[in-house]
C-alpha cells in the first residue's frame, strides 16, 4: 500500500465521518486548483453523502473519454458537448464498486488525438505558469497533471499510441499501459479500437499495482476484453518462464494460479498432465530471478536529447548493478512502426467518429445551416464542431481506407504491424501466450528498456511552432508497444544526479514486457527499487563505487 | 432486457420527441423520432404510403392506355438482338429474437425507439456483442441455398452517411462472408417461360449484416427515425449475374423467399418489407462484340447499372424490364451506358430514374471491424442443421406430386398459398383420413386437394374471407370428405354441409348432417317405381315419343328423368337408378 492509500485506509477504520471529510478535503483541493486539467467535477455536497464503502478510500479523476452518468463526457470536443451516458463505463463502475469516487473528468486532446493535450475544445492543459509552461504530454494530459499536481494520488487515462506513458514521462509520474484487452474498454469512447487501452497514472508504483488489480477483470460487455479462459492461458504460459523447450518438472503439481477475472487469488488444481505440460515446479516459479534486459539498437536515434540518453545509460547501469543482465537486441521494424501507427489509428478513427452527426447526442445540428439538397448530409455540422487535428486525422483515415489507397496504406500498415509484433516475439524469452505453436526462446529477454520519449517535456510555446507532423514524432518510442498490444510502464527517473532535479528535466523510462506479462512487469519494477528517485541515487553510487 | 428508461432518458437529452400527428398514422410503426433535416432523402422511401398507393394506381391507368398502341410488338421484335443479364442482391430479415450485435429484442413493436440498447443508436463507448442465436436462421438459409459454410468468417464496416445508419457504417461481411457457392434452381413451376427450361442460378455469397433504422418523412424539413429496426440481423444473398429475363429475375426472388420461409429463416416477405432486392442490369448484343465488363467472374458483359431497394416481385420484373429497354434505347441510338445507381418507385412504374452516377458513387471504405472477433462455425453444427433442415419447396413439390398424387398445378398452389399454412392443413386432413396402417396417401390426396383448394377456395373467394386453419377444423373437413367418399353424402349435400361448416358450425359433422337431413338414404325400388309411374302419368306426350323410339326419344327420356329428380327427394336419389327404373318401365 502506498502512503496515499494507507492514509485513506487508516481513516476508514476510524469511522464514516472521517471518510467523508477526507473526500471533501480532496474535493476542496480540486476546486481550489481550478486547473485546466479538469473539465467537470462533482458538487461538493455529493462528496459528503457517504458514497465511500470500499476497503480503502480515495477519489479519482477520470479522463473525459470514459462515459459517466452524473458527469458529462465530451472527449474534449464541442461535438459531444452536454453528452451524458445512460450506462457508466466498466472502469467507472469497477472503481465505484470498490469505493473510489470519480470526482472529476479531466482534460485531454480531443478524442485522444494529440501528444500535448493542447487540442482540446475547452482549453489547453499546461504544466507550469505562463511562458514557462511546459507540455503535460498527451492525450491524457489532464489526468497526468491531476496526479502530478497532487490533486489526486491516482488517475485514469487511455493509451492508444502512448497517451498515458508520454504524459507520465513529461510530468514525472508513473504511467502504466497494460496489455491490450486486460481492462475493459466498455464505455471508453474509442479513438482506434484495436490500439485503445485503459491506462493508470500514480505517484507510486504500489498505487499503480493496486489500481491495476481492481480493473484487471474480464468484462462480457467488451468483446475484445480477455476472456477468463485466455487469462488462464496467459497465467499458465507465464509459469514456463525460464524453462528450456522440452524441460519438464514431472511432479504432480499443485500450482497457485491467479485466476483471471477475479480479484481474489484462487487455487487451481491442475491435473498431472497439465502440470507436466506446463512443466515446472512451484518452487521454481516463485524463485526470484535476475532478469535479462533488452536494449534495442533502433531506439538510439540521433535526435535523442542528451539528457534522455544520459538517463537511459544511467538507468541501464543501475539495473545491471542490481544483478540484471543487459543485452543488445534488434527490433528492425521500429522505424516503420510510427508510420504504420499514423495510418492505422486515423483509419479506425475516421470510422469511429462517423457517428457524430448531431442527430442523437452531443451538440445539436444547427437548423440555420442545412447542407445542400442532395449534398453531403452532415459535413457542415462536423466541420463546425470537430477540432482541426480531429478533422486532419479523419481526412487522413478516410483517404487511407478509400478504394484507391487501401492497398498502399491500410493493408501495408497492417503488414508492418504484423512485423512489429514478430520483432517483439522474436526477442522475448516468453512465447506469445495466445499464439499457438510458439516456443519459448531461452536466450530471449524478459523486458525491454527504452526511453518513453526522445526528449524531456518541451515548452508549449515550442510545441506550437511545430507542424503536426513534428509532434507525431513524439510517439516514436511508445507506438511499437501499442501496435503489438504489449504492457508498458513509464517510470520517472533522474537524468542527472549532479544537479537538483526540476520539472523541465523530467524523463521517463519505458519498460516493455511480453503480451500478458503485466504482473511480472510490475513485480520487476518493484524488485528494482533503484528506479525510484532516491533509491536510484543510492544504487548509482553503489554501482560507481564498485567500478572504482 | 429492454431498457425503456434508457430510451426515455435518451429522448430528453437527445432531442427526440413524440409526435402526436405521427402516432395517429397506422402505416408506420413510428411515433417517437429524431428531428432531422432531410436533405439527401430518397423520396420513394419516405413518401407517405397512402400517397404512394394513389400515385401507383394513377400511373398504372396511364400505362394501360399507352400499352395498347402497339409499341409492345416492336419491342419484342428487337429483343431478339439483345441479351439481358441480371444479378440480384436480396436482403432478408432473419427470424431471430435478438438483434445481430445487441441483446435488444428483434420482435416487432409499435412503440418507436423502445427496443434499444445503446449500441443500436451508436452511443459512444458502446460495443457490438455478437448474438450467437442469430446463426440458427442464418445457417438454415445458407444451407437451404446450397452454400458451403466457411469455418471462419469476419465482419467489416461499410461506411456511408445516412440518417438511418446511426454509426455512420453498417456492419457486414464483405471480405470473408460466412457462406459461399450456393445455388437456386428455377423451373417453369417457379414462373419461368417454357423456353427458358430449367435454370441453375449461382449464389456468390451469403453474408450477415445489420439492418438500418426506419425513416418516415414528417414534413419538408423533418424526418422521423425509429431505431427499433436498427441493428436487426439480415442476410444478404448475392447471386451471380446469370438471369436473362425479367420473369426469371422475379421468379428467382420469389423462389429465394419461399426457400427462406420453408426453412423458417425469415418471417416476413416482400409484402411486409422483410425482404428487399437490388438488381444489377446490363445488356449486350447477341451478335456484336462482347462487352468488356466482368462481374463476379462472369466476363464479356455490358456496362451495368444498379437499381436499388425493390420491394415487390412485380417491381423486380418491371424495373428490370424498364431498365433493359432504357439501355437498349440508348445503345441503339449510339449512346453509352453510364455505370450508375438508379431508383424505381411505384409512382412511376414505366422507367427507372437516376439516383447517382459513378462520380457520385459512394466509396464504402470497407474496413475490418476491430471490435468484433472472427466468427468460427463448427462443422458439427453445420452437419446438425443440414440433417434437421425442413424440406425446401422443390422437395415439397416432389412429395406432393409423388406421394399425394396432386397435379403440379395443385401442388404449386398449395405451396404458395397462405405462407404454407394451407399445406399444413392439407397434410393434417389427409393424415386424419389415412388409416395409420396405410402409408399410401394417394388414395385421399387428390380428393382432399379438390376440397381444400377448389371447393374451399371458391368459398373464400366469393365471401372475400382470409384463409385461416381454424375456419373449419381439420377433423370436420376430414369427416366431411370421409362421408362423401363412403357415399353417404351426395356432391350437392357435401357442398351444402361445407357451407354450414364455413359459417362457423362447430358440432361434429355427423350431427350436422343428421340434423340438416343431408345424409344419403337410398330410396327403395318400390319408391322409384311409384315415382316413375307418377311422372309417366303426368307426361303422356313425352312418354309416347319415347316409346316410339323416334329421334327425340333420348331427349325426352332425359326430360322425364329430370322430372323424376325434381319431384323426388334429391338427397335420397341416384340418377342412375332413376334412369334404370324409367327405362325398365318404358322400354322393357
Automatic annotation (TrEMBL), chain A:
The active site is at 63 (charge relay system), 139 (charge relay system), 163 (acyl-ester intermediate). It is found in: Mitochondrion. It catalyses: L-glutamyl-tRNA(Gln) + L-glutamine + ATP + H2O = L-glutaminyl-tRNA(Gln) + L-glutamate + ADP + phosphate + H(+). Its main location: mitochondrion. Its EC number is 6.3.5.7. Keywords: ATP-binding, Ligase, Mitochondrion, Nucleotide-binding, Protein biosynthesis. Subunit of the heterotrimeric GatCAB amidotransferase (AdT) complex, composed of A, B and C subunits. PANTHER family: GLUTAMYL-TRNA(GLN) AMIDOTRANSFERASE SUBUNIT A, MITOCHONDRIAL, TRANSAMIDASE. This is Glutamyl-tRNA(Gln) amidotransferase subunit A, mitochondrial. It comes from Lithohypha guttulata.
UniProtKB/TrEMBL annotation, chain B:
One of its GO terms (cellular component) is mitochondrion. GO terms for biological process: glutaminyl-tRNAGln biosynthesis via transamidation; mitochondrial translation. It catalyses: L-glutamyl-tRNA(Gln) + L-glutamine + ATP + H2O = L-glutaminyl-tRNA(Gln) + L-glutamate + ADP + phosphate + H(+). Its EC number is 6.3.5.-. Its main location: mitochondrion. Residues 424-586 form the Asn/Gln amidotransferase domain. GO terms for molecular function: ATP binding; glutaminyl-tRNA synthase (glutamine-hydrolyzing) activity. Keywords: ATP-binding, Ligase, Mitochondrion, Nucleotide-binding, Protein biosynthesis. It is an enzyme of class 6 (ligase). It is found in: Mitochondrion. HAMAP family: GatB (MF_00121). Subunit of the heterotrimeric GatCAB amidotransferase (AdT) complex, composed of A, B and C subunits. Belongs to the GatB/GatE family. GatB subfamily. Allows the formation of correctly charged Gln-tRNA(Gln) through the transamidation of misacylated Glu-tRNA(Gln) in the mitochondria. The reaction takes place in the presence of glutamine and ATP through an activated gamma-phospho-Glu-tRNA(Gln). This is Glutamyl-tRNA(Gln) amidotransferase subunit B, mitochondrial.
